[in-house]
Amino acid sequence: MNCRFLVILTMLTAPSREFAADPPMTARQAAKASVENLPMSGKVPPSKFLRISFAKGVLNEDFVMELPDQDSAQRVEVEGTRGIWSVRKRYLGNASDLVYITVNRYDFDAPPDGFWMVTSTISPGSLTISGTQGDNSNGTRVRLTQSKGTLSFNCWKLKQGAQKAVVEATAPTIRQLLTAHPNEMREYLSPVLYMLTGKNLLRPGAADVYRLFESIQPDPKVSKELDQILAKLESDSFEERVEAGKLLMGKGREFVLAAVRRDPSDLSAGARGRLDQFIAENSTEQWEDLPAARLDRSVLLDCLDDEDVAVRKASKAELEKVLGKGIEFDVGLEGEKREKAIDALRGG
Predict the structure, then answer these.
(1) Pairing of the two strands 99-106 and 126-134
(2) What are the percentages of helix, strand and coil residues in the chain, rounded to 5?
(3) How many C-beta atoms lie closer than 10 Å to residue 212's C-beta?
(4) Entry pTM
(5) Among residues 270, 287, 324, 325, which one has the least CA distance to residue 210?
(6) Helix crossing, 269-281 with 238-249: angle to 10°?
(7) What is the C-alpha radius of gyration for the chain, rounded to an integer number of angstroms?
(8) CA of 104: how far to CAs of 35, 53, 110, 321, in Å?
(9) Who contacts 323 (Cβ-Cβ below 8 Å, separation ≥6)?
(10) pLDDT at position 302
(11) 3-state DSSP assignment of residue 304
């Protein structure tokens, strides 16, 4: 066989980059290809879309957007959020009252170590929230399920296709799960919940901490301004009441403190309802028994991470009473330094 023939044969049989098979798509790429061309259902504010909260330790989900009765996925634009949302409503069997709703949020620009897809599934008797980080064979999978009065939290790590459980736990309430697995819940579940709600539902809300620490009092100027807004909520003018409601709902946590301390007995039903709504929007309702919460080490450690230094001071004082000794914690710490200091106390 001559050399020229060998060269030609080699060229014909050698693999060509031009004709080489494309690498398989990752789960993220496949999801992006499947949802980008879905029909658009509409644009809604978050309050008119999906509501998720923990009340008295259990998970509550309420899908409030009206959807056409068709078994097909649709895109939804949720105001003030990035990424892509999709919704699918299905009926189970022939019973039209059994509705199965799946909500997905995709952040295809998330970093490799960030969650790029979260899913909320509402079905009769069961609620599930899950999150995906990484690709087909590497990354993290998180799932929180509530069914038959029990919450189940599962987290798995994938490495080269092999799955390893980080935590598999069940409890009647979210507080019990947090007490048993505080680091895993905050590291893996918090970002998933945040993608769905825009809130850190595992951290006590402003209304919660101010109810817990009654010694913290509002600024008199803020209380006076709150009273002025409440007076407008009792106006005979519909337009003035609407504007006052919008103004109240846009206020920050200094007004939450004033609202929690405000005696509503002199208010009309309408004004009292808006005040209650404002407080509820700033609560994660994790504690039903406040006296017991003040004696709970895990609750007080959570409050050490509050953005209000007055809350951190009050929490430190209560924690020292519970432990019967002083603790080394600088209430002025911020960001990662504060988180590390609290983690050290959790491990102690």
Answers:
(1) unpaired
(2) 40, 25, 35
(3) 21
(4) 0.71
(5) 287
(6) 20
(7) 26
(8) 10, 17, 15, 45
(9) 297
(10) 86
(11) coil
**Exposure pattern of 171-201 as b/e (b: 16+ CB <10 Å)?**
bebbbebbbebbebbbebbbbbbebbbebeb
The string of DSSP letters for 163-193 reads EEEEEEEEESSHHHHHHHSHHHIIIIIHHHH
CB of 323 within 8 A of CB of 285? no
Structural domain boundaries in the chain: 27-197, 208-281, 287-347
Name the strands in the sheet holding 84-91, side by side, starting at the edge strand that comes first in the sequence: 40-44, 74-78, 84-91, 99-106, 115-123, 126-134, 139-147, 150-159, 162-171
DSSP secondary structure code for residue 112 in this structure: T
Identify residue 39 by its one-letter amino acid code: P
- pLDDT digit string, tens, across residues 177-227: 888 888 888 889 989 998 998 877 888 889 999 999 999 999 999 999 999
Task: Give Cβ neighbours of residue 310 (< 8 Å, ≥ 6 apart).
Answer: 213, 216
**What are the tens digits of pLDDT across the range 51-60?**
888 777 788 8
Interhelix angle 253-261/220-232, rounded to 10 degrees, is 80
pLDDT (average), residues 38-55: 85
**Positive or negative: CA dihedral 172, 175, 180, 184:** positive
**For residue 249, how far is the Cα from the chain centroid?**
20
- Token readout for 222 is 């803020």
Residues in the chain: 348
Longest dimension (CA), the chain: 105
What is the distance between the alpha carbons of residues 331 and 341, in angstroms, rounded to a whole number? 10
| pLDDT reading at 90 higher than 90 | no
Averaged pLDDT, 116-128? 92
**Rounded to whole angstroms, how far apart are CA atoms 119 and 107?**
12
